[in-house]
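Minimal example, chain plus nicotinamide-adenine-dinucleotide.
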Amino acid sequence: MFQNKTIIITGGASGIGAATVTLFSRAGANVYILDKKKPTDYSSLSIHYLECDVSNADQVKSAIYTILQKNPKIDYLFCNAGIHLFANIEDSSFEAIQKVFATNLLGTIYCLQQVLPSMKQQRFGSIVLMASDQAFIAKEQCAIYGASKAAIAQLAKSTALDYAQYGIRVNCVCPGTIDTPMYQAVLEQFQQKSGLSVSSIRDQVAEKLPLRRVGKPEEVAQVVSFLCSEAASFMTGALVNVDGGYTIQ
Ligand code: NAD
């Protein structure tokens, strides 16, 4: 499905990003992972890893320059790297706030800035940004994280509008609760604050979802693949829920 296609996936070493790397690689794509952390398995010849902190504009510029030197074109970009902050406003340190916005929002912007010129030149490209169900709704102890994700949803719509004329589509996935290392870490933090057991918190979370379970990283990867593909050729600026029905309630 993605033979002769090149995709950059940020945060591809873990969770949703790693599931998307696997899906695209199996579908024949040439995959570049940009991540601070080295992936445990990128043995496939079609998967390449570049160490990159997306919150550092120079590192993003240099990584994407390296990719463009080796590839005539970048077809797809999945801006997925992100961090969570489980705290209300008062408990969020200035340093932590800056780190969330630098990674989630600025990291996305830096990648867009480096990739859009070449997509514009080739008059083709499909970009998927990673927001969250918190682009639509609020969750307790998530003010800063939620604000960063709502901003990304807006960025997707604005970028879609500006670049449609160049044949570039920009869409946004908005996952609900997905079982990844990030979710595990949030569960542990919630356990420490609430005193509840991790398994009872897990059950409570699942109970609140219409589909009565949390999602799998592969289920988000499938939607990213659809949005990149020609099957979604008339979609741009869409905010796509992948949340087991959480935000319809
Ligand atoms: P994860 O922690 O498993 O993976 C995140 C990846 O991003 C890691 O490989 C990490 O090293 C990388 N990363 C973090 N900061 C980085 C930086 N500065 N530069 C480069 N790489 C960096 O988390 P996940 O759950 O797979 O989350 C992926 C994305 O999905 C995030 O943007 C997250 O906010 C979003 N999301 C997750 C959920 C969920 O429930 N898991 C829900 C909605 C949205």
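Residues 10-11, 13-17, 35-37, 52-55, 80-83, 103, 107, 130, 132, 175, 177-178, 180-183 surround nicotinamide-adenine-dinucleotide (CB under 6 Å). The longest strand covers residues 168-175.
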